Known about the structure:
Blueprint lengths: L2 H24 L8 E9 L2 E2 L2 E2 L21 E7 L4 E2 L19 H6 L4 E3 L10 E2 L2 H4 L4 E3 L5 E5 L2 E9 L7 H12 L4 E7 L10 H12 L4 E5 L7 E5 L6 E5 L4 E3 L6 H4 E10 L2 E15 L2 E5 L3 H11 L1 H6 L3
Parallel strand pairs: 1-4, 1-15, 4-6, 6-8, 10-11, 11-12, 12-14
Antiparallel strand pairs: 1-16, 2-3, 5-7, 9-10, 13-14, 16-17, 17-18
Amino acid sequence: MDTGVHFRISLICLALGGVILFSLLQGGFQVEPTLTITLGGDVILGRDDQAIFTEDPWGGMAQTQTLPDGSHNWFLVNLESPLGSVAGTKVTRKGYNLCAPPEVAEILKMGGVGLVSAVNNHQGDCTETVEPSQALAGIVPIFEGQPAFLESPAGTVAILAVDAVSKPLDMAALLASVADLKAKSDVLIVSLHWGVEYAGEPTPFQRDQARQLANAGVDVLWGHHPHVLQPAEWVESEDGNHRMLAFYSLGNLLTDQSMTYEMRHSALIQLQFQEGEISQLSLRPLVLTQKDGRLALASPDEEEVIQINKRLGWAEILESFP
């Protein structure tokens, strides 16, 4: 084929490409809308009515609620500290009552937190609680039996929270709730307060419960309570038609538990959804440090990043990501 023929073919291809692009633009072609959820770990803001953090501890770790593409980033954490006061004669083990003064809600706002799960074994620590809509103004609280719904151009997300520490997990009731919410949402996240404190692995019983939730169509399992990172995994349904991403524990995010490196290590997981499926996921390793005599979040060093990635099994998660 001579040079002239090549040139004419190139011009034809270029012209066709321009026609296709023009047609897409004329037809209002748009990128498929996305939905972004960022998951964090345990947050303890007070003990025995006293605030742990009085200054901004987030630094560069605060989340931006509006992403560059204009979509919203929903940042979800497990709030172990109910907001209110401890008055009267309530008897607790000193230091194990995590009631925090209402003003510490400002710490959550500084970090860009958009939702908090209040469903855990410390939800009754305050004798006098503050109405969450007042203390958390702008932040959506999730209570047991009251799932949260997030609406976006990419679809509806339902978040269901359950406490399996204060009482045994009623799996039959949970699966019934899951079936109901699946019919009302495009993405379903189950928040489970469960597991063994400071254990590096979920129990076989937890893994069995996770399989049942995957069979029921749950998209993301977000666990908390152990206060240390545990391996995450994809859990496939028995019929092979669905996969759930299970985070058994993301460890501590903001707390005063800094005694060991396991308690100081944490991570933020950002999930992006398109048409009800996870289209992108990313990991941001974190470490809780003492800075100028106060606790603050920071970027971990290279060795700590390796440890955090290994403990979460992040390489395996990405290898199995479609």
